[in-house]
Specification:
The protein has 133 residues and is of the alpha+beta class. The protein has four helices and four strands. This is RNase H-like HicB family nuclease.
Length: 133
């Protein structure tokens, strides 16, 4: 289990946004604080899962003092988000998709703080759960 610092940001006319300084690009949001925390946990887990599937190195979590020492982080409220580190082995595969579908997948994944592999794994799991298989 690893604990990462998430930063909650809130503008007057926006949802509660959450970002992770240790994992740039992992962002999510919720309409209230409870939803923002749930979404932060989910986004962090899927991002790390995707990094593992891609063979990327998972960064060690920084301490609160280190995170808050950066002036860019001082406008956020720090929360601790725990994530279990998957022990399974990632397997590289080669698939073929239409270019427009791949572009849509990449755009969605980037917007939601996921890797391509993380998004595809998430979509496949959801499809299997929804079909009852």
């Amino acid at each position: 289990m690893r604990n990462y610092i998430g930063l909650i940001h809130k503008d007057a006319e926006s949802d509660y946004g959450v970002s992770f300084p240790d994992l740039p690009g992992v962002v999510t949001a919720g309409t209230d604080l409870d939803e923002a925390r749930r979404m932060a946990t989910e986004a962090l887990a899927f991002h790390i899962e995707g990094m593992i599937e891609d063979g990327d190195t998972i960064p060690e979590p920084s301490g609160l003092d280190t995170i808050m020492a950066d002036p860019d982080n001082r406008d956020g409220v720090a929360i601790l988000v725990s994530v279990a580190m998957p022990a399974r082995k990632a397997v590289r595969l080669n698939i073929t998709l239409p270019e427009d579908v791949l572009n849509d997948i990449d755009a969605y994944a980037q917007t939601h703080g996921l890797t391509r592999s993380g998004f595809l794994a998430r979509a496949a799991r959801r499809e299997m759960e929804n079909s009852g298989s």
